[in-house]
Amino acid sequence: MKRVLFLIWQFTWGLPQNLIGLIAFVALSKKYEYKAFGQAIVTYIPTEKAFGGISLGMFIFLNPTPLKRTQEWVHDAHIHEYGHTIQSLILGWLYFPVVGIPSFIWCNAKSIVKWRKDTDHSYYWLYCEGWANHLGRWASKLPFQEQEMLERGNYDNPF
Prior knowledge:
- This protein is α+β, with helices and mostly antiparallel strands.
- Helices cover about 55% and strands about 10% of the residues.
- It has one domain (about 1-150).
- It contains 7 helices and 4 strands.
- Strands 1-2-4-3 form a 4-stranded mixed β-sheet, with helices on both faces.
- Helix 3 (about 70-90) packs across helix 6 (about 125-140).
- The longest helix has 21 residues, at about 70-90.
- It is globular, with a radius of gyration of 15 Å.
- The model has no long low-confidence stretch (mean pLDDT about 90).
């Protein structure tokens, strides 16, 4: 019953991101491995590019390829991206303007990436990233493992 309610909620209230995620999942699932994580589906897209992960509703796409990535990083990325899945449940149609667009800019804008590095701000300092860590840890009931998450994940005070 819990799974059915989750699916109904994601594909009504969170329709835009889940529809895009479903299309991407269908296109990629023939080529890449996938598995369940909580109520989400994680598709593993190994690439040497700097892509880490993205959550589109209940569909998570994660790059497990080592670019200085450890098993602890992959573990924590599951939890973090699952937090974005929970944000999708909460925000529904507002997910893209409140989380998706700010997160995309925070991750990809060269000037912001440089600012984070120059000022030693954690990636998780942005409200939606710290909030994702908080929700992911709460929903998955799993602890973070990587030092960055333990020290600067902002999950106890996501705002």
